[in-house]
Write a structure and sequence with these properties.
Shape: globular
CATH class of the largest domain: Alpha Beta
Mean pLDDT: 96
Number of domains: 3
CATH architecture of the largest domain: 3-Layer(aba) Sandwich
CATH superfamily of the largest domain: Gcn5-related N-acetyltransferase (GNAT)
Order of helices and strands: EHHEEEHEHEEHEHEEEHEEHEEEEHHEH
Strand content: 25-35%
Bound molecules: coenzyme A
C-alpha cells in the first residue's frame, strides 16, 4: 500500500522491547505477562509496523488448526493487535492486518480466526462472524445426579499430553474446536499467583473417557469452581463428572465454563438451571478459498458439486469461479464452473463454518444462488454450530 508503512518481523531485542511496551499499554498488561506471552507464542510469530522510523503497531500469529467436518484445517489465530495511541486513527491497524493476510496467503494458510474488540476494523479486511464462545454458569445445588461407576483420579498439571488425545477426540466432532497451540495448553495449566490448578482424569488408567481442569475462585460472597478445560467422551463419564462437581456443593456455590451455545451434557440434568452469562462471536477470514474448501471435511454420504463465484477485494487469487466437487467426505476444488453460488469473502466465513445457513445468508443479502445451488450448499455445509472453548 503506501510507503509510509514498513511491515516487519521482530528483528532484535530492541524490537521485542518496543513491541512489548505497545502491547502492555494497549491491553493494560504487565512486563511479566509480556515476557511469558511472547516466549510461549515465539517472538518469530509477531509482526510489526514501522512508521517514521518508530514501531507503531504489532500483532501475534498463533499457527494452529480448527476442526470442520471432522478434519483439522490449518488456521492462523490473530491476537494482540495493538497500535500505539499516538498512531491510531491513521490506518495502521488496517495496514498491519492487510500485510499479515497477504503473508498468510503466501504461506498457504487456508483460514484465520480472531476475537474482535471492534468488528468495523476486521470487516474491512474480510473477517466476518463465524462461531460462538459462551460462558456458562450452573448452581451446584442443582446437580442431583449420583453416578459413581468410574474412577476419578487427580493428575499432575505438569504436562498437557495426558489430556491432549482425549481433547482431540472431542474436538474432531465439534466444528470450530481448535487443534490447540502449545501456548494455549500452557495457559490452561498455568498457576497464577500460586493459585492451585486441579486436574482429574475420569475412567480407567489405560483408556480415560474424560478429564477436567479447574481452579477455585473466591469472592466476598461465594466460592466457585471455574472450569478451565474439560472433555468428555461418553455419557457415563459425563454423569460421573456431574456427580463429582455436585460433591463440592457444601462449600461451593456454582461452576462455570466456556464453550458452545448448547452443551449436550446439560441434557443429563433434570432442569434448565445452567445459563449463558456472557458470549462473544469470533470472526474468520478465508485466506485461501481453494485450500480452505479442500481441507475441511464434508458429510460422507453426499456426492455433489457446488459452483461458487467469489469476490475478494484484498486477495486477487480468491476472485473468480471455483468448482467444489465433494465425494466420500472430502472436497476437491478446481477453477471454473458456472458460478451459480455467488458470495463475497466475508459472507464465505459464516457459510464455511456453518455459523449461518445458506438460506439465512441469502436472506441477509450475503449471497445469491440458484435454488439448486442453495440446496446443495445446505447439504454440504450442514453440521453442528461452530464453537470454541478457547480465547486468544
Ligand atoms: C483497535 C485499534 C487496533 C485500531 O487501530 P487504528 O490504527 O486506530 O485503526 P485504523 O486507523 O487502521 O482503522 C481502520 C478502520 O477501523 C475503524 N476502527 C478502528 N478502531 C475502531 C474502534 N475502536 N471502533 C470502531 N471502529 C474502529 C476505523 O474507523 C477505520 O475505519 P474507516 O476507515 O472506515 O474509518 C487500536 O485502537 C488499538 O490498538 N486499541 C487498543 C488495543 C485493541 O483494542 N486492539 C484490538 C484487539 S482485538
Amino acid at each position: 500500500m503506501t510507503s509510509q508503512f514498513e511491515y516487519l518481523s521482530v528483528f532484535d531485542a530492541q524490537d521485542t522491547k518496543k513491541l512489548g511496551a505497545i502491547i502492555q499499554q494497549c491491553f493494560g498488561s504487565s512486563p511479566e505477562n509480556w515476557e511469558r506471552y511472547h516466549k510461549r507464542i515465539g517472538i518469530e510469530n509477531f509482526r510489526l509496523l514501522r512508521q517514521e522510523g518508530h514501531i507503531s503497531a504489532g500483532l501475534a500469529i498463533y499457527h494452529m488448526g480448527q476442526c470442520y467436518g471432522g478434519q483439522i484445517v490449518p488456521m492462523a489465530g490473530i491476537a494482540a493487535v495493538g497500535v500505539a495511541p499516538e498512531y491510531r486513527g491513521k490506518g495502521a491497524a488496517y495496514e498491519i492486518l492487510t500485510q499479515t493476510i497477504q503473508e498468510l496467503y503466501r504461506q498457504s494458510v487456508p483460514i484465520s480466526v480472531l476475537y474482535p474488540a471492534t468488528q468495523v476494523l476486521y470487516r474491512k479486511v474480510g473477517y466476518e462472524q463465524a462461531g460462538s464462545y459462551c460462558r456458562w454458569e450452573l448452581p451446584l445445588s442443582n446437580i442431583p445426579i449420583q453416578a459413581r461407576s468410574m474412577t476419578i483420579r487427580r493428575v499432575s498439571t505438569d504436562n498437557y499430553s495426558i489430556f491432549e488425545s482425549i481433547y482431540t477426540r472431542q474436538a474432531q466432532i465439534n466444528n470450530g474446536n481448535l487443534a490447540r497451540h502449545q501456548a494455549i495448553w500452557q495457559h490452561l495449566l498455568e498457576s497464577e499467583k500460586e493459585q492451585a490448578v486441579y486436574a482429574y482424569l475420569i475412567g480407567s488408567e489405560s483408556e480415560p473417557e474424560g478429564y477436567i481442569i479447574f481452579t477455585q475462585e473466591r469472592n466476598e460472597q461465594e466460592l466457585a469452581i471455574a472450569i478451565r478445560d474439560w472433555a468428555i467422551l461418553t455419557a457415563e463419564a459425563a454423569k460421573c463428572l456431574w456427580t463429582f462437581l455436585g460433591n463440592h456443593r457444601s462449600q461451593t456455590q456454582k461452576v462455570s465454563w466456556q464453550g458452545s451455545l448448547s452443551n449436550p451434557f446439560l441434557l443429563l440434568l433434570p432442569e434448565q438451571t445452567a445459563k449463558i452469562v456472557w458470549q462473544m462471536i469470533w470472526m474468520m477470514r478465508i485466506i485461501d478459498v481453494s485450500l480452505a474448501l479442500s481441507k475441511r471435511g464434508y458429510p460422507t454420504g453426499i456426492e455433489a458439486e457446488l459452483e461458487l463465484e467469489i469476490r475478494d477485494n484484498l486477495l486477487e487469487a480468491n476472485n473468480g469461479n471455483f468448482s467444489l466437487q465433494v465425494s466420500g467426505g472430502r472436497g476437491e476444488v478446481r477453477p471454473g464452473g458456472k458460478g451459480t453460488f455467488q458470495i463475497d469473502i466475508r459472507g464465505l466465513a459464516p457459510f464455511y463454518t456453518g455459523f449461518l445457513s445458506p438460506r439465512q445468508l441469502q436472506q441477509l443479502g450475503y449471497l445469491k444462488a440458484t435454488p439448486k445451488a442453495l440446496e446443495t450448499a445446505t447439504l454440504l455445509f450442514s453440521g453442528d454450530r461452530p464453537w470454541m472453548a478457547d480465547f486468544f
